[in-house]
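Kindly inspect the following:
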Amino acid sequence: MKFLQNKCVCGATETQVAFPVADWNFSNVTETANMLRCLSCMSLFPDRFPSEEAISTAYQEYYTAHTVRSVLAKGRRSILRILQGEASDRHLPATAISILDYGCGSGEWLTEIGERFPGLALHGTDMAKPAREGLPFEWIESSTLDQQQRKFDLITLCHVLEHLRDPRETLHLLSRCLAPGGSIWIATPNAESYLFDSLGGRARDADFPRHRQIFSVPALANLLSDCGLISEFMPSPRVNTALNLASGIAARKREPTDVAPSASIGGPIVSTVKHLVQNRRSRMARAPELILVGRQKTL
């Protein structure tokens, strides 16, 4: 697999090595890298990343392409949706009519939101169109977005931004696709998550070599500001934190025998309990996930 040098989106060059990373989540690639921390914006990024021609290997059997079909799986998703509260609806504004899910995967969220809120005009785009028949939303090729005349009241990017080659360019494009008063909803990993301290590269959201950039709060707010958007950060559901911990423990158990074992899982569990009982402000700063709504600046 061909790798290229990676750099921080903010453009700064002063960094320090945070921890080593490998493909602990899916084992699609054997190459490793170092996760660097930008000393300017405090974001994280791997020092090298697959070339555009090679990146598809890293996404083989990626979970977002699968459609939930079994009754048991749908039941689990329903329970999870309840536990996630407003975040499961991506803080859907009451007045929103036209929705675009950028990076929609199989279209699972669009399908669910359409069932719960009939009458919405739903649209989705991703690297490839879902293979399933009878999509309950309108598919838009991402390459044609800049040519579209339509505008959207809400554009969502659920764990998409960290995968993009040029997130600034994408957000500039999407900001031009907003209807007056529209907003962009984003969920993305937090570079200052407490789990990176205790799990390092085994943390779910290190996800080498798929995550190209893991943003800090200031870096993400500055990025949206550059695109003419004001950021309002929301608390991430506690259940999402628990799921991140479970994924990290699972990655720890998958360590090959020829790799020096990482720290005991007891530390991350204790850290998670302490994190979950903190006040809202402290939890938001150190949660594994950042959730925010970007709204258009007013003159």
